UniProtKB/TrEMBL annotation:
Record organism: Methylomarinovum tepidoasis
Domain of life according to the entry: Bacteria
Listed GO MF terms: protein-transporting ATPase activity
Compartments (UniProt record): Cell membrane
Positions of the UniProt region annotated as Disordered: 96-123
GO biological process, alphabetically ordered: intracellular protein transmembrane transport; protein secretion; protein transport by the Sec complex
Record's keyword annotation contains Transmembrane: yes
Annotated protein name in UniProt: Protein-export membrane protein SecG
Family membership: Belongs to the SecG family.
Keywords: Cell membrane, Membrane, Protein transport, Translocation, Transmembrane, Transmembrane helix, Transport
Topology class, membrane: Multi-pass membrane protein
Length: 123
Protein backbone atom coordinates (compact mmCIF):
# COMPACT_ATOMS: atom_id res chain seq x y z
CA UNK A 1 0.00 0.00 0.00
CA UNK A 2 2.83 2.38 0.85
CA UNK A 3 4.50 1.56 -2.46
CA UNK A 4 1.44 2.66 -4.48
CA UNK A 5 1.08 5.86 -2.46
CA UNK A 6 4.75 6.63 -3.05
CA UNK A 7 4.34 6.07 -6.81
CA UNK A 8 1.37 8.47 -6.94
CA UNK A 9 3.31 11.06 -4.93
CA UNK A 10 6.31 10.58 -7.24
CA UNK A 11 4.21 11.18 -10.38
CA UNK A 12 2.60 14.29 -8.86
CA UNK A 13 6.03 15.70 -8.01
CA UNK A 14 7.18 15.01 -11.58
CA UNK A 15 4.17 16.89 -12.97
CA UNK A 16 4.86 19.74 -10.53
CA UNK A 17 8.47 19.98 -11.71
CA UNK A 18 7.34 20.14 -15.32
CA UNK A 19 4.84 22.90 -14.54
CA UNK A 20 7.30 25.01 -12.54
CA UNK A 21 10.05 24.66 -15.14
CA UNK A 22 7.67 25.75 -17.88
CA UNK A 23 6.51 28.74 -15.82
CA UNK A 24 10.04 30.07 -15.42
CA UNK A 25 11.31 32.67 -17.81
CA UNK A 26 14.55 32.27 -19.67
CA UNK A 27 17.67 34.37 -19.12
CA UNK A 28 16.80 36.52 -22.13
CA UNK A 29 13.61 37.74 -20.44
CA UNK A 30 15.65 40.01 -18.16
CA UNK A 31 16.37 42.31 -21.10
CA UNK A 32 12.65 43.12 -21.35
CA UNK A 33 12.64 44.21 -17.73
CA UNK A 34 15.45 46.68 -18.42
CA UNK A 35 13.25 48.55 -20.90
CA UNK A 36 10.44 49.08 -18.43
CA UNK A 37 8.20 46.06 -18.54
CA UNK A 38 6.88 46.88 -15.07
CA UNK A 39 8.11 43.77 -13.28
CA UNK A 40 8.29 45.60 -9.94
CA UNK A 41 4.50 45.82 -9.88
CA UNK A 42 3.98 42.05 -9.92
CA UNK A 43 2.76 39.98 -6.99
CA UNK A 44 6.22 38.73 -6.03
CA UNK A 45 8.10 41.95 -6.75
CA UNK A 46 10.91 42.53 -9.24
CA UNK A 47 12.93 39.40 -8.34
CA UNK A 48 10.39 37.56 -6.19
CA UNK A 49 8.79 35.38 -8.85
CA UNK A 50 12.10 34.16 -10.23
CA UNK A 51 13.43 33.23 -6.81
CA UNK A 52 10.08 31.69 -5.77
CA UNK A 53 9.84 29.55 -8.90
CA UNK A 54 13.47 28.46 -8.79
CA UNK A 55 13.27 27.70 -5.06
CA UNK A 56 10.08 25.67 -5.52
CA UNK A 57 11.64 23.81 -8.46
CA UNK A 58 14.70 22.97 -6.34
CA UNK A 59 12.49 21.68 -3.50
CA UNK A 60 10.44 19.56 -5.91
CA UNK A 61 13.62 18.20 -7.52
CA UNK A 62 14.93 17.19 -4.08
CA UNK A 63 11.62 15.49 -3.25
CA UNK A 64 11.70 13.73 -6.64
CA UNK A 65 15.21 12.47 -5.91
CA UNK A 66 14.16 11.19 -2.47
CA UNK A 67 11.06 9.45 -3.77
CA UNK A 68 13.15 7.85 -6.53
CA UNK A 69 15.53 6.42 -3.95
CA UNK A 70 12.61 5.26 -1.80
CA UNK A 71 10.94 3.52 -4.75
CA UNK A 72 14.22 1.79 -5.61
CA UNK A 73 14.58 0.63 -1.99
CA UNK A 74 11.02 -0.73 -1.82
CA UNK A 75 11.40 -2.44 -5.19
CA UNK A 76 14.50 -4.20 -3.84
CA UNK A 77 12.53 -5.49 -0.85
CA UNK A 78 9.91 -7.26 -2.97
CA UNK A 79 10.00 -11.06 -2.79
CA UNK A 80 8.87 -11.79 -6.35
CA UNK A 81 11.57 -9.79 -8.09
CA UNK A 82 13.27 -11.25 -11.15
CA UNK A 83 16.47 -10.29 -12.85
CA UNK A 84 16.26 -9.21 -16.48
CA UNK A 85 18.42 -12.17 -17.53
CA UNK A 86 16.06 -14.57 -15.71
CA UNK A 87 13.09 -13.07 -17.57
CA UNK A 88 14.87 -13.62 -20.90
CA UNK A 89 15.75 -17.20 -19.99
CA UNK A 90 12.18 -17.98 -19.01
CA UNK A 91 10.98 -16.53 -22.32
CA UNK A 92 13.22 -18.99 -24.19
CA UNK A 93 11.57 -21.93 -22.37
CA UNK A 94 8.12 -21.05 -23.71
CA UNK A 95 7.15 -23.41 -26.54
CA UNK A 96 6.74 -21.77 -29.89
CA UNK A 97 3.31 -21.38 -31.44
CA UNK A 98 2.64 -23.72 -34.35
CA UNK A 99 1.80 -22.08 -37.61
CA UNK A 100 -1.43 -22.82 -39.44
CA UNK A 101 -1.07 -25.25 -42.37
CA UNK A 102 -0.53 -23.68 -45.73
CA UNK A 103 -3.57 -23.53 -48.00
CA UNK A 104 -3.78 -26.18 -50.68
CA UNK A 105 -3.98 -25.45 -54.40
CA UNK A 106 -7.19 -27.47 -54.82
CA UNK A 107 -9.93 -25.23 -56.17
CA UNK A 108 -13.13 -24.99 -54.22
CA UNK A 109 -16.25 -25.75 -56.24
CA UNK A 110 -19.36 -23.89 -55.17
CA UNK A 111 -22.63 -25.13 -56.67
CA UNK A 112 -24.58 -22.40 -58.37
CA UNK A 113 -28.29 -22.71 -58.69
CA UNK A 114 -29.73 -21.70 -62.02
CA UNK A 115 -33.22 -20.27 -62.12
CA UNK A 116 -35.63 -22.78 -63.44
CA UNK A 117 -37.84 -21.73 -66.24
CA UNK A 118 -41.45 -21.63 -65.37
CA UNK A 119 -44.44 -20.98 -67.50
CA UNK A 120 -44.37 -17.30 -66.47
CA UNK A 121 -40.78 -16.80 -67.62
CA UNK A 122 -41.15 -18.33 -71.07
CA UNK A 123 -41.77 -15.93 -73.96
Amino acid sequence: MLYQILIVFHVLIAVGIIVFVLLQQGKGADVGAAFGSGASGTVFGARGSASFLSRTTAILATLFFLTSLSLAYFADLQDNKKDFVEILKSAEDVPSVKEAPAPTDTPVVVPVETPQQTEENTP
